[in-house]
Amino acid sequence: MRRAPGIRRRTRVARRAPALLAPALLALAAFLALRLGALAGAAAAEAAAARPVEVTLRFDAAFLQRLFAERVFGGPGGRLRLRSADRCSGAELLDPRVAPAPGEVRIAASARAHAGLALGAGCWRALGWRGELRLALEPRLEGEAPRVGFRLASSEFRPGRARLLPEAWLWRRIEPAFRDPFEAVRIDVAPLLDLVREAIPLFARAEDRAAAARMAASLALERVAADAGGVSAVLRFEAPAGARPVQAAPEAPLDAAELAALERALGDWDAFLTFVVKQAGRDAAAPALDRELLDVLLDARHDLVWALADPAPRGQDPVRALFVRSWGRLAPLLREVDADVGAEGALRYLAFVAAGDALAALDAAAPAFGLEISADGLRRLARTLVPDARVDPLARSDAVDPELRALFGFGPALAEPAPPAEGAAPAPRPAPDAGPTPPEAPPPPDAAPRPPDVYPPPDAAPRPPDLYPPPDAPPPAPDLPAPPDAAPSSDLPAPPEAPPPAPSPAPPSSLGPGAARAWLPRLAGALGALLVAPAHAAPAFAPPLVRAAPDPALGALAARLNRWAPSPADAPQYVPLAGKLLRAIAGELVRELPGELRGVYPALVLATAWQESCWRQYVRRGAALAPLRSPAGAVGLMQVHERVWRGFYDVDGLRHDVAYNGRAGGEILRHYLRDHAFEHEEQRHGGARALARSAYAMYNGGPSQRARWRSPKTPAALRAIDAAFLRKYEAMRDGDEAAVLACFSG
How far apart are CA 177 and CA 564, in angstroms? Predict the structure, then answer.
């Protein structure tokens, strides 16, 4: 039978199909293999590019002591009691002492026990003993749960005195009852891990949120170990590797909108840091810790001021750099604060520090990741520390904060400032979304701006430690006046006896060289009682509970100076009055200093005002008076930084009241002189001059600058500022107030 031609043709095509498709299938298979290989290679490359980041949670000895005291013994002074069912046998532990050691946590406690038999309604106690129980607990991870537990590795009973009773046998009988309470103690790390998982995405740029989510998902509790300092638990997550992108060319300066956004971001950071430091100050028990917390806040605010004065170009995040720099100093202090709160409070501090450590570690290990210090992230961190906070942690106010002053030893607020003088131009407060306030007048000749090589741009490496040397750093190089050989504190000038009060003649109408020498001794004699109190009457360092009211006569003098922007022509009349005001302010504030410092402080106040403002509160701006303002935003007679000292002083008072500004600057100088320079024995490096130089260096640049004047690595611009101050201090110490007229000669 013959087939139709069409059928035969289709059959031949069908038979040839496998031969025709084979090359195509092979090509497709090769393509898929290559594609899958490429995907696998990309996945492997991505996995290889990921960098592990580890953050250590540290449970120190103080935390462990509180933990076991609260969880096992019911709190400090508590006891662990165990009794048999018939209540005829029992034991108790008290006075626990926790001591971490390599590989274990050792607990020693006083112990006493008794064993007896029930006889009718009573008991017959056959055995009883006292001694010390010693336990060794091994920390461990509990399976898949992110918890740190403890396993009883060994126990030993040491009787208080030799007895013939079988104490070891008795202890073996009751040891199982004691095992459960200690092995039931656990540290639940799950809430802490949840916090870090939440925090990482909140601090990521929008384009990096996916990478942040992957990092958060990889977070896990890796291992736990004990050493002599405590128990450490290591958190681990995978971060993208890679270097920070390098800009090919300098970016353009920020425009007005970008400057406003920068100011808001820096304001949020300042508010967050203030919130945290205040909370830590409430919880800290040691005054020295309060002082260190304040130092971190003030140095961070100085950095903030200069970040605004010299904004970084586009592509650089100054807030990120400020966070990393400040966190390196703040985190160790917060670890000390948790020793002064209970176990639950300590866990809050631990969670807060762990989240900050994770962000800092991420910034160091994965600089290409877009870490961004956001307002939402800062709020989340702050509420970790204070879950029940009723205020916004990022709320900011320019008003005086009485709690801030009290926490850090500044006492009650200064007296209310005088209202602005007639004809004074208003100096509006910068709005939260406004850019930096432009300077209103040039600074005095010696008050040079902060040089960029000392205060690096925000994306630069952290400050090198040798720039801020310890107190035993070598003396300055020969191009500056070298301090004299180190002298003991007894070489400081003793405060003179207060002379009898005498009427002060009116200052002369002109101030030539001879006239200056004529009025200076009379003015010094008239104000001698205010300048220095007798050495035997030196009060304690603590500020008074009630601040004395200012002298009404000084109020009248301040009112006159508040209407005066001195010119070269009337400087001879202005300078004696400004000097009188400064000496009176120094006389008010010196009373709270110890006797050793009363001979240093008045000249320090006068020299600082000369260095900072040439004794001026106001300058002319057109036909109106305007407060003297530096390019960095310091204001008035003492050039007090409004941002650095926000919450400590009234902003309007700093701007418009010369006496209020003088007292504020005098308080700050007293703080640095007494609580830093004298506390760190700077007098060892040159007596009274060394104390004054250290106090001014901190006044000018923050607490971290205490030793800059004697460091050979200090840049020339700052060395020149410190040398100029020394010349002014020596002139004021010698009573040569007429030298201030040099400010007005040009």
Answer: 83
